[in-house]
Amino acid sequence: MTGIRHYVLMRSIVELVGEEWAEWYRFSPAQRWRETEKLWRAYLMLGGSLDPEPDSQSPFHDPEAPRSGAAHGRSGVRVVRRSRV
Description:
Helix content is about 50%, strand content about 0%. It has helices spanning about 1-15, 20-25, 30-45. α1 crosses α2 (about 20-25).
């Protein structure tokens, strides 16, 4: 009986969140931590930054404060071409 309940439970998780997220939910907390560390390393290697985004609504916002730019010196926003080729 336990096996049937486990199958029904896992099936409903997949139905609720999809297979990719169900796989994540099946990880132990230690496995999730290791996978998260891999994701952060990849993010930083690709030029991501841990600097917080400026909040212009904050009373502490200083628009003249120095900020680190992208590693390649250009803006972090990528232009996507929308016209047909």
